Amino acid sequence: MGQDPMNLGEMVWTLRANSFSTAWSQVPPAAQTRLIAGIPATVPGCVHTDLMAAGLLDDPYVGLAEHDQDWVGEQTWTYSSVFGLADGGPELTASNVDLECDGLDTVAEVLVNGLPVGRSVNMHRRNVFAVRPLLRVGPNQLEVVFSPALPYLAEQKQLLGSRPHVERDDYNLIRKMACNFGWDWGPRLITAGIWRPIRLRPWSHARLLDVAVHGTARRRDDGVWVGRLSVQAHLTGELRFAALTVRVSGGGVTAEVGVAAADWTTADLDITGVEPWWPHSLGEQPLYDVEIVFHNDTQVLDRVQRRTGFRSVELDTTPDADGDGATFGLVINGEQVFVRGANWIPDDCFVTRVTPERYRERIQQAKDANIDLLRIWGGGIYESKAFYDACDELGVMVWQDFCLACAAYPEEEPFWSEFEAEARDNVMRLSAHPSLVVWNGNNENIWGHDEWHWADLPGGDKTWGEGYYYELFPQLLAELDTSRPYWAGSPSSGSPDIKPNHPNYGCMHIWDVWNQRDYTCYDDYTPRFVSEFGYQGPATFATWARAVEPADRAAGSEVLLAHQKAQGGNDKLNQGIAGHLRLPGEGADDFDDWLFAMQLQQARAVRYGIERWRSWRGHCLGSIVWQLNDCWPVTSWAALDLGTNAAGEPVARRKPLWYALRSAYADQLATLQRDGDAWRLALVNDGRDPWAAEGRFELRSFDGAVLWSQLLARQVPVRSRVDVTITPEHVDVPPGELAIVVTLNGAERLVKLLVEDVDAALPPARFEAAATVTDEGATTVTVTAETFLRSVTLFADRVAEDAWADSAMVDLFPGESHTFVINGAVPSTDADQLTRPPALRSLNDSLVASEAL
């Protein structure tokens, strides 16, 4: 049988800088001696994290430290290790030994015992180098030399010319994570390192090079599900008399098939009685173990194991009957889905710090917000196995971009070959995951070429990536993966004859809201599918507290502005809040009010958009919010920020937007949309069962009096919406003192003011609040209103940085109570702080107080 590989990440590694580099003078003098001698390194890892561990680099997430680390990305770095081989050991008795490098970031030369064995210029692909002739008994030296990325960009620019792109650097001229060079939510931290596992694999006779596993499902007329397992294996070596055996097991089902081996071997197996994999919003997630054994008559040559699920995925693009549009929606196991999604970016600027446990926690946080799809954005990476495993298990679908974003990409060599190798590698690697439901060609590149006037920019007349989106990627997927649909881009109309960001075809991005227009302008759109839209808000207080000194905690401070990467970001925040809430100041004394107002504005804006799209369910079939997560402490579009706690552990804290997503993406939603003098109450059911919606529509004054009401009773089938037109009677109370209240079984209560909050006659906040800590340490806070309270929110992290409340933005009428349940420990001696500002806030605080000034 093939021998187990040697995990070289377990060896002792050293990191050195090349003192003959042209950028050596940029290295801080205090670090030069140690970097010449070498410092301990971690593999997988990257230079920045090794330097921080050695005390040679300040944490770039804190304060202004980001500005002091450009020198790191300008050096030549060498990772070296020594591994011993015993005489008669498998590495020296095998006829072949491969050095498998799953990820090298990015311009790398690999040497074994001082001799070069290969080079890589692509972070996104695996490299395999044959090294058997270079190995010897005793110590063997492995070196990986990383040249800086920026000179490589300059070389490619000299050879191929520049092409349009966003941001500062020509990131489109290197196959490296685009946001490594900075983005409008992330710092410029140009990494290098062995970022994925590296191993030695001895083998003789033959081996499996790569395997793709696809599980699909169909339901027979008698209701029984039949799964089809399709395996494609890429083999090498002596294949005469060899065979491939595929076994699948799970859920009481077992099956097996054998086929003769060839360079490319395909095996298909039908299994009756499987249980289908569903997104969590529609069903369960049964998974099956697959073993692929490569053998000849006398021995097992190689084997791999995968885990998969059985499901069918279609992309419905049926043209409208009137010819003026087309459906765009996912169909899973024959059921049309309204996608309740969020965009995913790398969860850390240093992606090797993201552990399987962290992936699992983040995807659980997404699921807890009723998110059923994550779109892996094309400016990041093809994620690690742990990400997709968690999505498989938790029932969160994945829309996977190929890694191209916001730029024109050259199609000349070496890029075409690198893109082909990268795509082959990742399509094969990710094939088994049932959660992966869409391949997407790029992020905003078709849109950029068509509508951002790239043709008028330097390099606009050169190749720009069209060949990848319409030729290379679809051809490779036709060869390697027909189990899931492909779409050329986000946004894309699906036709070169129709504008790519057309609201009535394909998927669209909506960014004039936030950039120029008020969030109520979402009303101007009735799209078929929105794959990007969003609104900014600052990180939580506890995250800022670890990243910014108290004196710098002000919206207008140099430090906070350094953690705001969007061009004109704070101006857009101020512009957007006008007419909705009071504009807070930007000084240190205003920081609490600024945080609350801007976070609340973000939550409301995004919820407004989601409810708009869901209110047109059927015409619109998806909403993917920008964005779920952050990669450092920042003011951004994320629902989850990224900070640390006292132990230095990463923490993704929930902003008010997270709670808004949970509400707006709930299975049953009641949302009010203005329709002239009337209201359109859209009752949306994306749950698993029919919804018998019963309750009441009320017009109330702020003192709680019901001035007009109407009973509601509607049957809402699964995966559908029902509209109810309501025209309230006139009441002799100013609109600024009125609220609409819709209460329905199975749905969150809806409270909507008839005017914007800033114009409402909100009373001064009067309430009672009591904190209770049980003997087991559980904490609750009960708020009882004496006056109408608007958007009551408990920021538990103001008292204990790891604590968070189970709910937020609660409206209470006089006499009503709400109990917040606190997750995370709060010292009993501090619990009383949860009952007053700055932890306990309502809009009454800022709006009424501002009028009294």
- Structurally, the number of domains stands at 5
Q: What is the CATH homology-level superfamily of the largest domain? A: Glycosidases
Query: What is the CATH architecture assignment of the largest domain?
Result: Alpha-Beta Barrel
Total number of beta strands: 48
Q: What is the third-level CATH name, the topology of the largest domain?
A: TIM Barrel
Main pleated sheet: 6 strands, antiparallel
Primary descriptors:
5 domains, single chain, Immunoglobulin-like, 853 residues, 16 helices, six-stranded parallel sheet, Jelly Rolls, 48 strands, six-stranded antiparallel sheet, TIM Barrel
In terms of topology, how is this protein built?
Layout (H helix, E strand, L loop, with lengths): L5 E2 L5 E5 L11 H9 L1 E3 L5 H7 L23 E9 L4 H4 L2 E6 L2 E2 L1 E6 L2 E6 L6 E4 L7 E10 L1 H12 L20 E3 L2 E3 L4 E2 L3 E6 L2 E14 L5 E13 L5 E8 L2 E8 L3 E9 L15 E8 L4 E9 L4 E4 L12 E4 L2 E2 L2 E6 L11 H13 L4 E4 L8 H10 L2 E5 L13 H16 L5 E5 L4 H7 L14 H15 L5 E2 L20 E2 L2 H4 L14 E3 L8 H7 L10 H5 L6 H9 L13 H25 L6 E4 L17 E2 L5 E2 L4 H9 L3 E8 L2 E8 L5 E11 L4 E11 L3 E7 L11 E7 L5 E4 L13 E7 L5 E7 L3 E6 L9 E2 L4 E3 L4 E7 L16 E2 L1 H10 L1
Parallel strand pairs: 25-26, 25-32, 26-27, 27-28, 28-29, 30-31
Antiparallel strand pairs: 1-14, 2-3, 2-4, 4-10, 5-9, 5-14, 6-13, 7-8, 7-10, 11-12, 15-16, 16-19, 17-18, 17-20, 20-21, 22-23, 23-24, 33-34, 35-36, 36-39, 37-38, 37-40, 40-41, 42-43, 43-47, 44-46, 44-48, 45-47
Helix pairs in contact: 5-6, 7-9, 14-15
